[in-house]
Amino acid sequence: MVTRPELLMLDEPAAGLNPKETDELDHLIVELRNQHKVSVLLIEHDMKLVMGISDRIYVVNQGTPLAQGTPAEIRNNPDVIRAYLGE
C-alpha cells in the first residue's frame, strides 16, 4: 500500500483459512478498500466472503463468462445456480 495502488489483485486469499481468519480477512479487505480508495479484484471460491464484500461480481464457469451483477443478482441468477448448485 506504500505505492498507493489503484488496484489490489487478490488470488484465493482465503485458501487454507479457518472461518475466524476468513472473517478477519473480510474486514481487512474492506478496510483497505475504504481507507485507501483502492479497487479490489478478488478471485475467490469462498462465496460467503465474495458475497459479503463485493459491489459487483463476475462469474466464470470453465473459463467462460457466465454472469455479472450485484451479489443479489448473482445469488438469484438461474445460470449461476445451475452451474454451481445443480438443478
TrEMBL record:
Keyword 4Fe-4S: no
Record-annotated Branched-chain amino acid ATP-binding cassette transporter C-terminal domain positions: 66-87
Sequence intervals crossing the membrane: none
Molecular function as annotated in GO: ATP binding; hydrolase activity; L-isoleucine transmembrane transporter activity; L-phenylalanine transmembrane transporter activity; L-valine transmembrane transporter activity
Domain of life: Bacteria
Protein EC: 3.6.3.-
A single GO cellular-component term on record: plasma membrane
Keywords, sorted A to Z: Amino-acid transport, ATP-binding, Hydrolase, Nucleotide-binding, Transport
Enzyme class label: hydrolase
Any one biological process term the GO annotation gives: L-alanine transport
Pfam families for this protein: BCA_ABC_TP_C (PF12399)
Keyword ATP-binding among record annotations: yes
PANTHER family: CONSERVED COMPONENT OF ABC TRANSPORTER FOR NATURAL AMINO ACIDS-RELATED (PTHR45772), HIGH-AFFINITY BRANCHED-CHAIN AMINO ACID TRANSPORT ATP-BINDING PROTEIN LIVG (PTHR45772:SF11)
Family label: Belongs to the ABC transporter superfamily.
Descriptive protein name: Lipopolysaccharide export system ATP-binding protein LptB
